[in-house]
Amino acid sequence: MPFAAITYDVKSGFEKEITEVFRGFRRVRSSVVEDDTGRPEATILSTAVFIRDATLVRVIEYEGDLDAVARFMANQPGVREFEERIAPYLSRPRSTATIEDFVATFKRSLLNPVVQFSVRDR
């Protein structure tokens, strides 16, 4: 299963407040990502968030099309709410007002994968 890591440029010294923003996150309504016709395009398997000083990273484990995952996330009410709540703690604003803006920001925020290992790959 592939992983994607997304960075957020955050202000140092607000780790506690940022952690609270994530604790209040409303999960997506389904882990299955469907296209406009209802056909499954991807599945979000798990997520994790890490923070230290001015670096925040969200890791997403998924199957399928990562672009579909980004479009799906852009439409989720909890994600929209999260983007509003995290904004005061960002050192570099994220443009996420529209689906297109969200997807472009998502892609710009991706870390380049170096290597991924899993016991499931055996």
Based on secondary structure, the structural category is alpha+beta
- Put simply, the count of helices is 4
Mean pLDDT: 91
Low-confidence stretches: none
- Which oligomeric form is depicted? single chain
Main beta-sheet strand count, sense and barrel state: 4 strands, antiparallel
Strand order of the largest sheet: 1-4-3-2
Strand count: 4
List the helices and strands in order. Answer: EHEEEHHH
CATH class assignment: Alpha Beta
Q: Tell me the overall shape.
A: globular
Output the radius of gyration. Answer: 15 Å
Number of domains: 1
Helix content: 25-40%
- Share in β-strands: 25-35%
Might you state the CATH topology name? Alpha-Beta Plaits
The termini sit apart by 12 Å
CATH architecture: 2-Layer Sandwich
Highlighted features:
4 helices, 122 residues
Task: Provide structural commentary.
With 122 residues, the protein is an alpha+beta fold. It has one domain (3-112): Alpha-Beta Plaits, CATH 3.30.70.100. Helix content is 32%, strand content 27%. A four-stranded antiparallel beta sheet has the order 1-4-3-2. Helix 2 (66-74) crosses helix 4 (99-109).
Q: What's the structural blueprint in terms of helices and strands?
A:
Layout: E1 3-9, H1 15-23, E2 32-34, E3 40-52, E4 55-64, H2 66-74, H3 77-86, H4 99-109
Antiparallel strand pairs: 1-4, 2-3, 3-4
Helix pairs in contact: 2-4
